[in-house]
Structures are given as structure tokens and as C-alpha cells.
Amino acid sequence: MTSPAYASADTSNHSNTSDTSIDPIDITQEDSLNYWVAALDCSELELRVAVAEVGPAAKDVSNELGKML
Asked: Along the 69 residues of the chain, how does pLDDT read in single tens digits?
């Protein structure tokens, strides 16, 4: 499963590359939302609450949910 919100190790096509290889979780985009619900094995509500609590960083959200990425 490939996510538009999950960057590959090759970030040469990104103009603003961050220190992490995982892009933020975008809960406003349905495909991103569906990917992360499946990847983190949580409900949409759980994901939205976690993002509201800790922000959109996938690592922080996974920690908040007690899930491993």
C-alpha cells in the first residue's frame, strides 16, 4: 500500500525536505486519511483526535495511539 502522505527514502523530488522521511498526516485528504486509518489500525475518529492532540506528525500520532510505524 503506497500513501501520498508517506514519502519514500528518495526525497530528491521534494523541494522542502524535512528531517524525517514521513510526511505529516493530512486529515483533510480522504486518501491520506484512509491510508493512515489502515496503517495505524485505528478508527477515523481515533486518528482525528490523535492529530488534534499531538499534531500531524505521523511519528507523534502513532505514539499517541500506541502503535508502531
From this structure: 445 444 333 333 333 444 444 789 999 999 999 999 999 999 999 999 999 999 999 999 999 999 998
Q: How many residues does the chain have?
A: 69
DSSP assignments along the chain, one per residue: ---TTS--S--TT-SS--SSSSPPP-TTSHHHHHHHHHHTT--HHHHHHHHHHH-S-HHHHHHHHT---
29 contacts 44 by C-beta, under 8 angstroms: no
Domain that holds residue 43: 30-65
In the chain, the amino acid numbered 31 is: D
Question: Is 7 part of any domain?
Answer: no
What is the number of structural domains in the chain?
1
